[in-house]
Backbone:
């Protein structure tokens, strides 16, 4: 005897076909109990996302991280460990270092990579813990504004530094 | 408190927690550090007077703490890269974490005197 099952596969998607949003489509009522995997593309998802932003952000974190290990550990070694540690630091010491384009470039690259790496990390943390849409938006806007300001200020300082001020 | 604040515990979760905590701490310091360095555009005196606070015992100790956070974040970050890009990375993630901890302990022990020498010599003489 044929039983008339009523179920829908509008949003319930097999993990094996998570990207299609079409469900299993086998007609088996057990399909209705397939758990929707995280980030499933449903019928509400645009057919094509415009960019690979999240993948590029993920890749940037790894690439910038490796470069930052060298830049920042070198910076700590010079500033806090070698030649008397923190004692030697002062305006004259900064003027001596920024007389060289090599150290200007080092600090500029370090500033940009560290700020972008840090702000993208903070974006992830905010996305994870701020549950309200408006809270997330405000926190990220505030953090983004602070980041842009700090990067521009630091860049300006490196390029306009005057040892005879 | 969001539900489910404990994932699986053990090395994988706790290294992830430590990576977050150190990352956020370093990011906030970075803002302060760019601002204090920007004082070189104001006057040598303004810059030197702020750098003076970096040489007080308490802040000197915080520099050692900052180094601890950065060093862990750097070494564990390399472990994350290895887990993501090395085919055997996930299999050896625990061993890599304990290697990170081992290298961190050795480097922190080695950095103790150089970083705190300013405070130590002012207290106990050379």
Residues:
């Amino acid at each position: 005897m044929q039983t008339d099952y009523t179920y829908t596969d509008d949003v319930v998607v097999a993990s094996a076909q998570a990207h299609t949003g079409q469900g299993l489509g086998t007609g088996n009522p057990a399909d209705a109990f397939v758990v929707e995997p995280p980030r499933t593309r449903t019928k509400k998802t645009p057919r094509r996302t415009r960019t690979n932003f999240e993948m590029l952000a993920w890749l940037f974190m790894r690439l910038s991280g490796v470069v930052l290990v060298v830049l920042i550990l070198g910076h700590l070694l010079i500033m806090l460990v070698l030649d008397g540690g923190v004692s030697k630091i002062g305006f004259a010491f900064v003027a001596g270092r920024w007389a060289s384009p090599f150290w200007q470039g080092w600090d500029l690259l370090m500033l940009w990579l560290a700020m972008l790496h840090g702000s993208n990390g903070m974006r992830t943390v905010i996305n994870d813990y701020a549950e309200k849409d408006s809270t997330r938006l405000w926190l990220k806007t505030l953090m983004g504004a602070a980041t842009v300001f700090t990067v521009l200020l630091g860049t300006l300082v490196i390029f306009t530094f005057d040892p005879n001020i | 408190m969001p539900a489910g604040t404990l994932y699986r515990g053990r090395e994988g979760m706790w290294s992830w927690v430590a990576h977050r905590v150190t990352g956020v701490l370093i990011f906030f310091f970075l803002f302060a550090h760019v601002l204090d360095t920007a004082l070189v555009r104001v006057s040598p005196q303004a810059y030197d007077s702020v750098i003076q606070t970096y040489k007080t015992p308490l802040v000197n100790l915080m520099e050692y703490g900052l180094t601890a956070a950065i060093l862990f974040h750097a070494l564990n970050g390399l472990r994350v890269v290895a887990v993501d890009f090395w085919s055997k990375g996930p299999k050896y993630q625990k061993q890599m974490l304990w290697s990170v901890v081992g290298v961190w302990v050795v480097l922190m022990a080695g950095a103790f005197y150089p970083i705190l020498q300013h405070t130590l010599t002012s207290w106990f003489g050379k």
User: Anything to note?
Assistant: Chain B touches chain A through 39 residues (CB under 8 Å).
